[in-house]
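Reviewers of the previous submission asked for a worked example of the structure-prediction workflow described in the proposal, so we include one complete record here. The input consisted solely of the amino acid sequence. No template or homolog information was supplied to the procedure at any stage.
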Amino acid sequence: MRPVRDNALSFLFGALFVLALAGQSVAGWLENNERLQQHGQAAESFLAFIGSSEFVVDVAENWQSEFLQFFLFIAATIWLVQRGSPESKKPGDEGPGTDEEQLVGEHARADSPSWARARGIRQTIFSNSLLLVMGAVFVLSWLAQSLAGTVVMNSENAEHGQPAITWIEYLGTPDFWNRTLQNWQSEFLAVGAMIALSIFLRQRGSSESKPVGAPHHESSVSSE
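From that input alone, the workflow returned the following structure tokens.
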């Protein structure tokens, strides 16, 4: 059972993701068929629905906002601090840190990843690999959302006898930016609230909280 215990957080959120995605797909399929029936059209199979642009655009618009949130948060915490928040380094520690602090190159330990011991482009890539992957998933999800959204809008336009639009034209539509910004604002609010509230509030036992008795001005990584 040790592998389960040691990876319990990943297992939990992986399972929650699968369950939520499955629930969304079923609910979206039922809603889509209700809409089709209201317009006198034949119901769509479940497999056809989960492969449709309608389903893809709903999933992708949430994924891109989530990965954008973490991309910006990770990048911002390199250079910006919030005194008292456990989500931040302490004031004065801004920046990427020295090689000694980061255990890279000649300062790497015996059990450090091999690319941390390497020099040149491999070390540079590994040193920024988290941001690179988060950014790549955001861009791919945003692209999927925009392409699927174009197909959905053109389908709706065809139903109303309106001309089709290009992908570039869709990027300038209110529909695209409404879908995009309604997700972005919620993600930015959640991150900002977590940073600010964790200064004054506590959750005993959580790695996202300072110790219960820690002063408000001190972060969990402070030595002061």
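The chain has a mean pLDDT of 92. We consider this example representative of the routine output the project will generate in years two and three.
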